[in-house]
Amino acid sequence: MRVSLAMILLSPLALAAGTQAAKADFRVCNATQNLVGVAIGYRANAGWVTEGWWHVEGSTCKTLIEGPLSSRYYYLYAEDAERGGRWDGQINMCVAEREFKIAGVNDCFARGFQRSGFQEYDTGDQGSWMVQLTDEPGADGANAVTGTGTP
Questions:
Q1: What angle do CA 24, 86, 35 make, to 5 degrees?
Q2: Distance CA 78, CA 118 (A)
Q3: E strand or H helix that includes residue 12
Q4: Alpha-carbon distance 136 to 138, whole Å?
Q5: Taking the CB of residue 95, how many other CB atoms lie within 10 A of it?
Q6: Rounded Cα gap, residues 41 and 49, in angstroms
Q7: Which residues pair with 80 in a beta bridge?
Q8: For 14, which DSSP code?
Q9: Cα–Cα–Cα angle for 92, 94, 95, rounded to 5 degrees
Q10: With bands split at pLDDT 50, 70 and 90, how would you rate the model's confidence at 147?
Q11: pLDDT tens readout for residues 116-128
Q12: What average pLDDT does the structure give for the chain?
C-alpha cells in the first residue's frame, strides 16, 4: 500500500520533470546541399541592428535569436557560399564581409559597410519563427524562402 501511495504522489513530479516548455527562438533551416551565410536585421531598444554571418551547412538549421521574439518584424539576407546565389528582399540594411553587429541601417557605404536587400518577415505575435531556404524557385523566380511561426 505504501509503495502504491508513493507512486501516485510522485507521478505528477516525474511528469513535470520530464516535460519541458517549448523553446522559442528565430531559426533558419538550409534545405539546400550548400553552405549558406545568413544575416539578420531587427529593431532593438537602441534602434536598428544587423548581425551576421551565421554559417548554415546544407540540410541543417541554426538558431539566430534565442528565446521569445521581442520584435514583430525580422529581416533576413542569405548567400550561397558555394554557388553565389542569394536570398534577398527590398529592405536595405548594412552588412560587412566578416562577422558583424552593426547599429543603424543608414549610410552603409560612408561607414565602411556594404548594403544588401533583406527580406521582411512579419512574425505577428508568434513566440518563435523558422525560415527555410530552398533551391526551388519562388513565385517571382527567386529562390524560395518560407517562414513559419509557433505561438
A1: 70
A2: 8
A3: helix 2-18
A4: 6
A5: 21
A6: 6
A7: 36
A8: H
A9: 125
A10: low
A11: 999 999 998 888 8
A12: 81
Residue with cell 553565389: 84
Number of other CB atoms surrounding residue 104 within 10 Å: 15
Dump the DSSP string for 21-80. PPPPEEEEEE-SSS-EEEEEEEEETTEEEEEEEEEE-TTEEEEEEESS---SEEEEEEEE
Q: Quick one: cell of 110?
A: 560612408
CA-nearest of 53, 38, 42 to 104 is 42
Contact 79, 133 (CB under 8 A): no
Q: Pull the grid cell for residue 84.
A: 553565389
- In the block, cell 533583406 appears at 118
| 0.85 surpassed by pTM | no
Inter-residue contact 48 to 104 (CB < 8 Å): yes
